[in-house]
Specification:
By secondary structure, this protein is of the alpha+beta class. It is built from 7 helices and 4 strands. This is Costars domain-containing protein.
């Protein structure tokens, strides 16, 4: 009887030891990794079993997981882009010429002049012009503008700068409100 009690005590000592808890944690992590590799289309485990089709809705496709650091960084970047578009429109408003006397709030500036002014502020002028046109804040002829070739192309504000400011600040505020207060790193394991 004493030998059995002694063996149980020794077994309890082994089960409760720091090494055994580390081994158990390692085994648990290894198992969860094996399970995650079953849904990973790039893993070797998937090649041997056949591909399980990943189910993603149209709303989720191409977007980071909600509440993740990736989503947080993307939203912060959007806030910055909206700020840069606002600065671009303000430069056009300050340095541009009114299109007509009836509507002096709508301004126009030639791309060459805008390029010379704006390159001292930001080196992403052409991308910002395309983004601002997508949001219907400015208008210009052609698909993309290039230095020297398109210096004579006029760039127009489509709205007064006060209205543009309201639109862009509203979008920034909307994004700030949607930001997660505690973003989580995207975990590679499900």
């Amino acid at each position: 009887m004493t030998d059995v009690a002694h063996e149980l005590g020794a077994l309890r000592l082994i089960v409760d030891s720091p090494l055994s808890s580390k081994v158990a944690l390692f085994n648990q992590t290894a198992q969860s990794h094996r399970e995650s590799q079953l849904s990973n289309p790039f893993s070797d485990a998937q090649a041997s079993r056949g591909m399980a089709r990943l189910q993603i809705s149209k709303e989720e496709y191409g977007k980071p997981k909600a509440g993740s650091l990736t989503e947080y960084r993307g939203k912060k970047a959007n806030i910055q882009v909206y700020q840069e578009m606002l600065e671009l429109c303000q430069v056009i408003d300050v340095d541009g010429k009114p299109v007509s006397k009836k509507n002096p709030d709508i301004k126009m500036i030639y791309f060459g002049e805008l390029f010379n002014i704006y390159t001292h502020i930001n080196d992403k002028l052409v991308g910002l012009l395309l983004r601002a046109r997508k949001h219907d804040l400015i208008q210009f002829e052609g698909e993309c503008l290039f230095q020297r070739r398109d210096d004579h192309v006029p760039v127009y504000l489509t709205k007064p700068v006060a209205q543009i400011r309201d639109i862009l600040v509203g979008k920034q505020t909307e994004i700030r409100r949607s930001l997660s207060p505690n973003p989580q790193p995207t975990n590679m394991l499900p």
